[in-house]
């Protein structure tokens, strides 16, 4: 094409070849990156593909347009339209067969020289080549050449001119007599053959679109329009044609050619190319000048032949194959939605695929479904295998719900094991709640109600209320040396230590059981630190030695023990100096704080208190022992706000289940979304205030909603039972009332005014006292209850298990069951009915009926009772 | 392995939307073939199409489920300028035995004069309400006053957004502390028209505009709130953006619209092109996005609220070759704009502070095995 502006043509037969034409013709082959054929000198087109230059042809100057011979043989035969109106046949690559040789270099010369605008091979009669030319007075502008026609003598007149245009052209190959001459006194800007008939040619003329019929050249159909450039037929819809003018694309239906069926939204710059996608129905790509985007119009529906008003849906989108301005593009003939794009300058090529737009959705159980094109894909979160990567909280909560997390109300601490046992924050939380509960129970036994509320208000509030603090200076145990470390005692501080888990119930401060449990868990450093804080250096050293000699123990612990044994309270000793500088290099935080403690001045323990890798419980316990009454609340306040800020569950120890605790939990939920832990935690406190906090109610509602969405209905019901213990207001009311047909009173025994019978509906079949009315009758009026539709007995009659289930246990077993107080009668005896047709009977009978039938057992009732409710057919996913 | 399993969808044209029901056991798809299909999951995990019917006389853009407490109810919207409500009818025929269910049209909402581009049910606690938005920029809120009668819907509100609307999302939070909110996105590509995301507080009927998003918005999604104190909004525009809306605590005495501090918590241009859809998982800890690069990407935040890409899949379920999966530098800005109250001028631009930080590519690489897919 004209100098700078390149164009691309895909080979009609080789899916991996294309030609780029700018000032010369270049044939490229496209292949995967790294393939041996494409390795040398390959130009990368995309991440996966590269192009190799196969041949260059610069024989034909002044190229205006190019068209590729549509038939298989000879391959790589190209027609080039030149600025002087000549059409030259040329080829690329090494096609040596005779037929091609014969055609090569053949020229077709119009009578008057003017620019050749367009070329089109007839797709069926492939000898025919149509050329569209500019206007020259009254001359014809559409010439159809037969490439097989022989040299015509008349052309010798122009032989002189021919030699000028291309020196090596054999004059014997010049053709001057076209097969057809059309479009007199007009210009032709674009051409295409219509697939409807091989003899129909659509031409964009100067001011109209014209259809020439070669069977009768005097006849043409035409419509006046400005949109005459780039006429092109939809390969999937032979009557649909696109053409353009400036920024406007017109879509025509050849069956009603009077006006365009639609025009696409005008683009701000003039269009340069419009092309239908050969692999996809109704997809049109357009390119404007000086642009780096290709605009796509997806015409979803062919206009219906019955001329109703529905206009086709058009989905517009733009794609940006690369950052540079686009010179031209060409759809790949067979690969789905694929095109090669060439830049306006420097011939940079890009292999580009237009992807379908993907819509997607997550299911409640974290599997992802997406739709791409006409296909659906689903993938679920992987199970096993990866291990190292943390699971999403949705998956965690589901697993925890299944392991009954939160439901251990006796050994409360065990809940952290149910949660997987790998989360230190959850561990701390559940231990704290366990200690709180334990203390409450102790207090209850001693009948001291006053402290009970306090324990749930957290250590921060407990130490605030502290009074009567005593101070003492103890000896280092095992030596008579007096320490200058003051230690503080009070009832509240002891309680705090208990909540931290350092000491057990009882008046003495005895950390030995705690140390032993830490040893048992292999937490040697922590045990040693706790021993040291209790001023027992010997025990600390002993623990460290034990740790060093334990299986897979760290021998360095012995070295630490050695360093510890050299402790001196001499202010200026070398030991002190070395310890305070070297302790920072210790990796284990507990070893670090041990030396921090030993080397710090009394009352200033920042090295211990603000070591954030030490568990909050230990820091709090430490503070309760060594900070005085003015320091302690300040430290607690500071630590609490820090915990609240980050939503660290260890902070529940400080805040308790108070409003502060809810604040802390709020930031935990904000951070993690773990409403499960939040709900269970807040339900563990003393009955009362926090549960009424709207935030807590919100977490509970959200958690219940999650369980419902996962169809963990049993878990949800269990949760509701658990919840109602603490929050009686959450109990739902009775859902169903059944009234007697005769007296209109409720037949429920518990609701009736009669004495004795507060035991509920389920007690049928128990032969009770004579004063009790028959269970088959209404407790109000003693009229019989309705009959079961199947056994025709009055309801309330105990029935044996339904036939055919194989679970029949006989009457005696049933009796044994039923005589147990609070035990429900077997479900088979329940009164059930269809809420639609209102026929019913014993649940067991009805169930067994519907195992084989779809319609109601009552004669002439066609109700499909069992299919009425879709949700009812869903199975809970947590039933076992 | 990064292989997703494919399901034979059997739609005759592009599928535009896929939607799960509340329990994740049913799914609906809609397509340019003018039909909606309903799929049920068997106990073995296979999907079976149990209903397929022509719903509209144009491409069906979106389909969505009502909460099951209102029955088995679907809403669809189409290029044919209508939205429709469908209900499954059981027991009327023998379809169930053949594994087919029967859906009937309960109502057609014909108020729009242009293509209806999105349809969404309001959260359950608001009753049975339906919102549509259309290409001419009108958001309509319908309500079925009697939840047992799905054929009567009254048009409650008609809000003009002035820009062609492409997507809507309700804030799913059921907390009484949070007012009901609707976010509306516009895919108008003219950046001069200002903010393309508008947020309406339903009761107050006031709006705020996210001025920071001026490019065409293709999809918008409020995250499931799950008892959090703030709201999160994901936006599919020329990149994936995640905004946080933190309600400013107001004095109990003051009434009027809630003010929000709007923070942008993440912005990813890894799709290298227009982002088409975004979707949150049930705990709003995972975000999935799809883009014109033909890929599905998964995003997850760590405990520091830093969002990272944790998985990439091609649209056809095949794995993506390593290199393109590396997220490069990303911009995160922390800004604050208040949701303007009625008196605030909409055009008031927020002041923004830009903080740039980089994600370490190696961490992403490690995380890219996070999701494992079943191979069939």
Question: Could you name the key traits of this structure?
Answer:
heterodimer; A: 880 residues; alpha+beta; Methylamine Dehydrogenase, Chain H; five-stranded antiparallel beta sheet; 26 helices; 22% strand; B: mainly beta; 1 helix; 2% helix; Sec13/Seh1_fam (chain B)
Layout of strands and helices, then pairs:
The complex is a heterodimer of chains A (880) and B (376).
Chain A: E1 7-10, E2 17-21, E3 25-32, E4 43-44, E5 49-57, E6 63-68, E7 77-82, E8 87-91, H1 98-103, E9 107-108, E10 116-121, E11 128-133, E12 140-146, H2 159-165, E13 174-175, E14 180-184, E15 188-193, E16 200-205, E17 208-213, E18 220-224, E19 229-233, E20 240-245, E21 248-253, E22 262-263, E23 271-276, E24 283-288, E25 294-299, E26 314-319, E27 326-331, E28 338-343, E29 349-353, E30 358-362, E31 367-372, E32 375-380, H3 393-402, H4 415-418, H5 424-445, H6 450-455, H7 458-464, E33 470-475, E34 482-489, H8 491-500, H9 512-520, H10 524-533, H11 537-549, H12 556-565, H13 574-582, H14 589-599, H15 606-609, H16 616-626, H17 631-646, H18 652-655, H19 659-672, H20 675-682, H21 689-692, H22 694-709, H23 713-726, H24 810-819, E35 831-833, E36 840-842, H25 843-852, H26 870-873
Parallel strand pairs in A: 9-13
Antiparallel strand pairs in A: 1-2, 2-3, 3-5, 4-5, 6-7, 7-8, 8-9, 10-11, 11-12, 12-14, 15-16, 16-17, 17-18, 19-20, 20-21, 21-22, 23-24, 24-25, 25-26, 27-28, 28-29, 30-31, 31-32, 33-34, 35-36
Helix pairs in contact in A: 7-17, 8-16, 9-10, 10-11, 10-14, 11-12, 13-14, 17-19, 20-22
Chain B: E1 5-7, E2 15-20, E3 26-31, E4 35-41, E5 47-54, E6 60-65, E7 73-78, E8 83-89, E9 102-109, E10 116-121, E11 129-134, E12 138-143, E13 154-160, E14 165-170, E15 181-186, E16 197-201, E17 206-210, E18 219-222, E19 231-236, E20 240-247, E21 260-268, E22 275-280, E23 286-291, E24 295-301, E25 307-314, E26 329-336, E27 351-358, H1 361-367
Antiparallel strand pairs in B: 2-3, 3-4, 4-5, 6-7, 7-8, 8-9, 10-11, 11-12, 12-13, 14-15, 15-16, 16-17, 18-19, 19-20, 20-21, 22-23, 23-24, 24-25, 26-27
């Amino acid at each position: 094409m004209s100098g700078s502006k390149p164009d691309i043509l895909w080979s009609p037969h080789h899916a991996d070849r294309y030609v780029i034409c700018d000032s010369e013709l270049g044939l490229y082959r496209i292949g995967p990156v790294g393939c041996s054929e494409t390795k040398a000198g390959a130009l990368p087109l995309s991440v996966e593909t590269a192009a190799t230059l196969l041949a260059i042809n610069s024989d034909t100057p002044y190229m205006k347009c190019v068209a590729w011979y549509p038939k298989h043989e000879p391959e790589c035969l190209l027609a080039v339209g030149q600025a002087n109106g000549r059409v030259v046949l040329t080829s690329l690559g090494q096609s040596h067969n005779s037929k091609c040789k014969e055609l090569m270099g053949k020229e077709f010369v119009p009578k008057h020289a003017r620019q050749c605008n367009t070329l089109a091979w007839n797709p069926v009669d492939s000898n025919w080549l149509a050329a569209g030319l500019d206007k020259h007075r009254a001359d014809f502008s559409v010439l159809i050449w037969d490439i097989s026609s022989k040299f015509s003598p008349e052309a010798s007149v122009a032989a002189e001119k021919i030699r000028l245009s291309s020196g090596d052209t054999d004059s014997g190959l010049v053709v001057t007599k076209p097969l057809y001459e059309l479009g007199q006194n007009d210009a032709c800007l674009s051409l295409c053959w219509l697939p409807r008939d091989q003899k129909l040619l659509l031409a964009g003329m100067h001011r109209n679109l014209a259809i020439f019929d070669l069977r009768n050249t005097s006849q043409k159909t035409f419509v006046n329009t400005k949109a005459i450039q780039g006429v092109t037929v939809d390969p999937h819809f032979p009557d649909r044609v696109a053409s353009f003018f400036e920024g406007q694309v017109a879509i025509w239906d050849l069956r009603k050619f009077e006006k365009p069926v639609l025009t696409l939204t005008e683009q701000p710059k003039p269009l340069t190319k419009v092309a239908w996608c050969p692999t996809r129905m109704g997809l049109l790509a357009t390119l404007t000048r000086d642009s780096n985007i290709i605009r796509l119009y997806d015409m979803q529906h062919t206009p219906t032949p019955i001329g109703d008003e529905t206009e086709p849906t058009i989905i517009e989108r733009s794609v940006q194959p690369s950052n540079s301005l686009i010179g031209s593009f060409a759809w790949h003939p067979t690969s789905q939605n694929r095109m090669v794009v060439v830049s306006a300058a420097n011939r940079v090529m890009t292999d580009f695929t237009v992807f379908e737009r993907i819509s997607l959705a997550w299911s409640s159980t974290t599997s992802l479904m997406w739709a791409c094109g006409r296909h659906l894909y689903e993938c679920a979160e992987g199970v096993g295998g990866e291990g190292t990567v943390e699971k999403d909280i949705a998956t965690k909560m589901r697993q925890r719900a299944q392991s009954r997390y939160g439901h251990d109300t006796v050994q409360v601490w065990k809940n952290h094991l149910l949660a997987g046992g790998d989360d230190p924050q959850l561990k701390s939380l559940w231990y704290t709640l366990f200690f709180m509960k334990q203390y409450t129970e102790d207090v209850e036994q001693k009948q001291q109600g006053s402290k009970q509320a306090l324990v749930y208000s957290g250590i921060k509030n407990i130490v605030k209320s502290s009074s009567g603090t005593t101070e003492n200076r103890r000896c280092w145990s095992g030596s008579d040396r007096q320490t200058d470390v003051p230690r503080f005692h009070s009832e509240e501080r002891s309680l705090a230590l208990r909540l931290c888990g350092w000491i057990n119930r009882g008046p003495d401060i005895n950390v030995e059981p705690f140390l032993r449990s830490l040893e048992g868990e292999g937490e040697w450093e922590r045990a040693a630190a706790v021993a040291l804080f209790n001023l027992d250096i010997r025990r600390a050293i002993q623990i460290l030695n034990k740790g060093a000699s334990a299986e897979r123990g760290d021998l360095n612990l012995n070295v630490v023990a050695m360093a510890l044994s050299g402790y001196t309270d001499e202010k200026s000793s070398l030991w002190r100096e070395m310890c305070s500088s070297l302790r920072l290099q210790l990796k284990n935080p507990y070893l670090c704080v041990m030396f921090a403690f030993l080397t710090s001045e009394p009352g200033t323990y920042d090295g211990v208190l603000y070591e954030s890798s030490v568990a909050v419980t230990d820091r709090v316990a430490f503070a309760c022992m060594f900070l005085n009454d003015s320091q302690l609340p300040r430290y607690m306040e500071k630590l609490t706000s820090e915990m609240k800020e980050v939503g660290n569950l260890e902070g529940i120890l400080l805040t308790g289940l108070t409003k502060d605790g809810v604040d802390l939990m709020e930031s935990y939920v904000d951070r993690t979304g773990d409403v499960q832990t939040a709900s269970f935690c807040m339900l563990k406190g003393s009955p009362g205030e926090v549960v009424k906090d709207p935030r807590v109610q919100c977490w509970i509602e959200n958690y219940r909603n999650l369980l419902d969405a996962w169809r963990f209905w049993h878990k949800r019901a269990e949760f509701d039972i658990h919840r109602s213990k603490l929050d009686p207001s959450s109990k739902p009311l009775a859902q169903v009332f059944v009234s007697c047909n005769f007296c209109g009173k409720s037949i429920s025994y518990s609701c009736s005014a009669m004495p004795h019978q507060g035991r509920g509906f389920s007690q049928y079949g128990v032969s009770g006292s004579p004063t009790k009315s028959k269970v088959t009758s209404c407790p109000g009026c003693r009229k019989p209850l309705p009959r079961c539709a199947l056994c025709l007995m009055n309801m309330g009659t105990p029935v044996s298990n339904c036939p055919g289930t194989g679970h029949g246990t006989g009457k005696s077993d049933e009796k044994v069951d039923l005589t147990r107080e609070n035990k429900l009668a077997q479900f088979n005896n329940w009164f059930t009915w269809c809420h639609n047709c209102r026929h019913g009977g014993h649940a067991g009978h009805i169930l067994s009926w519907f195992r084989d039938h779809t319609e109601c057992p009552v004669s002439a009732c066609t109700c499909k009772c069992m299919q009425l409710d879709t949700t009812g057919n869903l199975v809970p996913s947590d039933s076992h | 392995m990064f292989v997703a399993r494919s399901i034979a969808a059997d739609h005759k044209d592009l599928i535009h939307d896929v939607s799960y029901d509340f329990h994740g056991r049913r799914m609906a798809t809609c397509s340019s073939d003018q039909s909606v299909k309903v799929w049920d999951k068997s106990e073995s995990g296979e999907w079976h199409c149990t209903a397929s019917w022509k719903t509209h006389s144009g491409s069906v853009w979106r389909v969505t489920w009502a909460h099951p407490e209102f029955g088995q109810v679907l809403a669809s919207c189409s290029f044919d300028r209508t939205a429709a409500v469908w209900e499954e009818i059981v027991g009327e025929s023998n379809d169930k035995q053949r594994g087919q269910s029967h859906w009937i049209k309960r109502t057609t909402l014909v108020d729009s004069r242009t293509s209806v581009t999105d349809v969404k049910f309001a959260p359950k606690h608001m009753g049975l309400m339906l919102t549509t938005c259309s290409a001419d920029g009108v958001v309509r809120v319908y309500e079925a006053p009697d939840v047992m009668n799905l054929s009567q819907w009254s048009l409650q509100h008609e809000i003009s957004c002035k820009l062609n609307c492409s997507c809507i999302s309700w804030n799913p939070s059921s907390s009484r502390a949070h007012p009901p909110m609707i976010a509306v996105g516009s895919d108008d590509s003219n950046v001069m028209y200002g903010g393309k995301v508008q947020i309406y507080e339903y009761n107050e009927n006031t709006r705020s505009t996210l001025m920071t998003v001026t490019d065409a918005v293709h999809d918008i999604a409020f995250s499931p709130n799950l008892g959090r104190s703030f709201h999160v909004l994901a936006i599919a525009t020329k990149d994936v953006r995640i905004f946080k809306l933190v309600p400013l605590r107001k004095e109990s005495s003051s009434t009027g619209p809630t003010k929000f501090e709007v923070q942008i918590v993440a912005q990813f241009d890894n799709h290298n092109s227009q982002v088409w859809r975004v979707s949150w998982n049930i705990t709003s800890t995972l975000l999935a996005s799809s883009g014109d690069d033909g890929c599905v990407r998964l995003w997850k935040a760590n405990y520091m609220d830093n969002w990272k890409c944790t998985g990439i899949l091609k649209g056809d379920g095949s794995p993506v070759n390593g290199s393109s999966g590396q997220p490069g530098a990303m911009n995160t800005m922390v800004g604050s704009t208040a949701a303007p109250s009625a008196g605030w001028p909409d055009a008031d631009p927020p002041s923004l502070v830009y903080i740039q930080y980089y994600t370490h590519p190696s961490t992403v690489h490690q995380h890219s095995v996070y999701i494992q897919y079943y191979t069939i």
